[in-house]
Task: inverse folding
């Protein structure tokens, strides 16, 4: 039997933790396309994804889940639509401790909603940091409707990442039931 | 000092003149007419831009202090004398106060600078010898704060352009049942835009209807979004129609993925 593949996309602003998120759950080392940061204002980390991150989870003998992390910098957004094609759903990661990226997160979320009518969840990443915004405050800051799931997350924790993906899958099932 | 605004932006130029306390006039060739901005010790003292020729009569007319007809006859009078004499005459006759004149000229100069700050290209030259005509009334304006304000606004505008990249999109009210629109303190432009929010009206259509520039309408929508009142109604792609068989397959896949994910962590 031919192996089926399905994909989910992990998106979010620059440095929100997408590569780490995929890395935490993927059974293979993430195929990352990282380059050294060239501009001073974006130097909150040393490297950034320029094409995509690629992780994999084997579900069973004939089903594989691929996780694609999008590049966070706007100048690579030509990749977003390509990555969004045929996705089961998407996760928007937000760095809870960097309010200067919230607007960008909102804009990315709206862009992806326009690309595909698939379910999504928002993960409030880096909740372990002292200055992380509370999930409820973040919901207001991002102007998310109550029905959109917003989940606390620390992308280095496999359990947290698993929980975010499961919540997304439950949303996908719920939407299918509504259909 | 010569160049093009393409390479050296208006705010950079104004900042340079202000910081180095230059005296002279900046002459700019722009598609909508030439502009002259005159400075003394880095302070803006006079401006003329296209039709806004910087004469007292036209400044007062635009400020609504005198009618267009009055401005016409006063201009003829001023041509024979000077703006200073015209101003003196108007004050003596009790038509206007000295404060009114200073305020109107200041407002005119600030409007000129704000408009100039948005120019994207045009040849410019700074002539240190050229000063406004002797008869013009000059009101010195410190540019430092003005430049800061303009830069802030420009930064905000470019942020808004990123957030609202296309104006060919409709707006919709956010789902906030507890908010009573009638109790909100909005400005005139915000009310005008709110009035036109309908699924069929794109932002561009609203801007055209209300005679607003792209920048103006983005600013209004930016503040309405900031207040959580409206959001962009992105055209959604319709979900693909799945056959019952495909639906069942998809459901089965999702359930299998859930089961697999649930086992992660438990297996180790």
Result:
């Amino acid at each position: 039997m031919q192996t089926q593949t399905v994909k989910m996309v992990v998106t979010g602003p620059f440095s929100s933790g997408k590569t780490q998120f995929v890395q935490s759950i993927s059974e293979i080392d993430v195929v990352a396309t990282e380059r050294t940061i060239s501009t001073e204002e974006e130097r909150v980390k040393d490297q950034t994804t320029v094409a995509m991150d690629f992780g994999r989870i084997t579900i069973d003998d004939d089903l594989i889940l691929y996780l694609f992390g999008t590049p966070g910098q706007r100048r690579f957004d030509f990749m977003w639509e390509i990555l969004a094609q045929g996705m089961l759903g998407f996760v928007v990661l937000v760095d809870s401790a960097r309010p200067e990226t919230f607007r960008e997160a909102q804009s990315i979320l709206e862009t992806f909603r326009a690309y595909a009518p698939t379910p999504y969840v928002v993960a409030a990443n880096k909740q372990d940091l002292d200055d992380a915004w509370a999930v409820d405050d973040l919901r207001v800051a991002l102007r998310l409707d109550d029905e959109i799931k917003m989940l606390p997350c620390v992308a280095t924790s496999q359990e947290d990442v698993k929980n975010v993906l499961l919540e997304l899958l439950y949303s996908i099932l719920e939407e299918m039931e509504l259909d | 000092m010569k160049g093009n605004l393409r390479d050296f932006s208006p705010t950079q130029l104004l900042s340079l003149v202000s910081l180095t306390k230059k005296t002279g006039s900046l002459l700019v060739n722009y598609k909508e007419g030439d502009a002259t901005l005159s400075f003394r010790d880095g302070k803006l003292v006079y401006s003329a831009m296209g039709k806004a020729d910087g004469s007292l009569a036209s400044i007062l007319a635009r400020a609504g202090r005198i009618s267009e007809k009055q401005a016409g006859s006063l201009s003829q009078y001023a041509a024979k004398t000077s703006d200073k004499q015209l101003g003196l005459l108007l004050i003596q006759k009790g038509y206007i106060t000295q404060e009114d004149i200073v305020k109107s000229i200041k407002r005119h100069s600030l409007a000129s600078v704000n408009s100039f700050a948005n120019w994207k290209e045009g040849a410019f030259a700074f002539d240190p010898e050229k000063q406004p005509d002797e008869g013009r009334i000059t009101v010195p304006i410190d540019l430092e704060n003005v430049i800061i304000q303009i830069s802030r606004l420009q930064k905000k505008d470019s942020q808004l352009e990123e957030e609202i990249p296309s104006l060919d999109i409709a707006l919709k009210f956010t789902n906030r049942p507890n908010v009573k629109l009638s109790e909100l303190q909005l400005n005139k432009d915000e009310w005008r835009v709110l009035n036109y929010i309908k699924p069929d009206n794109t932002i561009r259509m609203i801007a055209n209807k209300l005679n607003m520039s792209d920048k103006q309408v983005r600013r209004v929508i930016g503040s309405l979004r900031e207040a959580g009142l409206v959001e962009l109604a992105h055209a959604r792609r319709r979900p693909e129609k799945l056959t019952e068989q495909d639906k069942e397959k998809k459901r089965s896949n999702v359930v299998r993925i859930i089961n697999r994910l649930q086992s992660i962590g438990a297996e180790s």
